[in-house]
Amino acid sequence: MFPIRRASAALALGTSVLLLSGCFAASGTAEGGGDAGDRVSVAMLLPPRSGLSPFSDDAFKLSRWRTAETLVQLDAAGDAQPMLATGWSRVDPTTWRFELRDDVTFHDGTPLSAGQVADVLTRATRASPPPRILDGVELTATPDGEDAVLVSTAVADPLVPQRLSSPQLSVLAPDAYGPDGRVDPAGHGTGPFRLTDVQGTAGATLDRYDGYWGEPAGVAGIDVSFVPDGTARTAALRTGTADVVEAIPPGQAPLVDDELVHEVPMPRTNTLYLNTDRGPFADPAVRAAAREALDRAALVAGAYEGRADAAEGLLGPALPWAAGLRDDPAYTAALENRPEPAPVDGVPITLGTFTDRAELPEVAVLLEQQLEAAGFVVTQDVREYSAIEADALDGAFDAFILSRATVLDSGDPVAYLASDFGCAGGFNLSQFCDPGVQAALDEAAGLEAGPERRAATSRAEAAVLGADAAVPLLHERVIQGESARVDGVARDPRERDLITTGTGVGAP
């Protein structure tokens, strides 16, 4: 059947090419000089949903265009690094002091000030809904002189610097914030690219900002088009209409030159949650039988066409430190001490998942086959996520397949582990509570970011896997397209960076 699918996709691509001229924004001219040949064209998956408000998920677009910036940025390990703040220190258990750069101007010429930073952070706490990174966090910000800001929380929070790296806490000029609560980022950021025009849900134009405090941009500007249709985005890459393309569908990737597609590991794990509270999987030995029945390689090949990574743990390649910590003797001991699988013959189980992510129903079919081969009798329940979430959280299923983000906006996985496997976790699909796991989670949550916190996080992961509360299946990837004329494009698992000051264009 593969040749037929390939031919159909090729026909669809050919049709899409006829429509591309109406999909892509026209190239502009940068304030620093240059013409269309110096610019980068980008085809993005989703249009803005909240008028590019930095308090919404649209903030990640502003970050990927490098037009809005935060006090802090994260390195590959998730550790905080300077951005608009040059450094920080912990004044007391609940207060941090952030020192600001003294050479930053907003795109409208206004200088960055401690008062404006404190005002923006205060506005974020009052936004409705508030930025995800502040969910459950009582935060206050006040100027400390002209070049520093004090950030306080109601309780001790070792992740305050990481929280301030969230694109939803980007700092914009005073004129960006209207009296009606609306926020206009156009011409009000601090990044190397100035947002000059927004064409609703069609596209956006950005020009190089020559007053940037850091390394100047290597291209004259960015021309963005929002192209939800995957076939059209792929065609844009093939025809050279776009230099950079978000999220090439896996089924379309074989139709593009291999040198133009790059697979980026995502902090997202496809996981089988097992109900540890009632039903067959309340027995650890039956959970072990389910775990041993699974063939991860077959899931990757069948549902993801080989474009995913078979899971060895809950935390995948997007967290580069996770794999190395699994060599620790305590980690391996936790897995070696798991119960032996029980013999299974005709054990009925209910398996739930949802249709909103296209691959999950196919994963469910493959898992059903694997589990039934091991002796389970599987009944599937597949619905839209909005219709199935409440039942899943109530423990209505013996097993549930979920594509789960393992790193939240702080760049740290402890909140995910606590939510899913803590005794008071708000997303505990496994109905799981274990004193040893809870102690490991509490230890990790109390440590500041760095090697000790990562080691404690790894021990918590091992404790969860040792109990077979969940069986990680695979780690997802996203396919990013880059034309032959562009280089220096970021391939960021957290989807915060895309076009950077190091991005350049040349002859194809």
From TrEMBL:
Q: Which domain of life is it from?
A: Bacteria
Under the heading Pfam families, the entry gives: SBP_bac_5
Protein name stated in the entry? ABC transporter substrate-binding protein
Q: Which PROSITE patterns match?
A: PROKAR_LIPOPROTEIN
* Organism annotation: Pseudonocardia nematodicida
Q: Which InterPro entries does the UniProt entry name for this protein?
A: Peptide/Ni-bd (IPR030678), SBP_5 (IPR039424), SBP_5_dom (IPR000914)
Keywords in alphabetical order: Signal
Q: Which residues constitute the signal peptide according to the record?
A: 1-25
Q: Where is the Solute-binding protein family domain?
A: 81-426
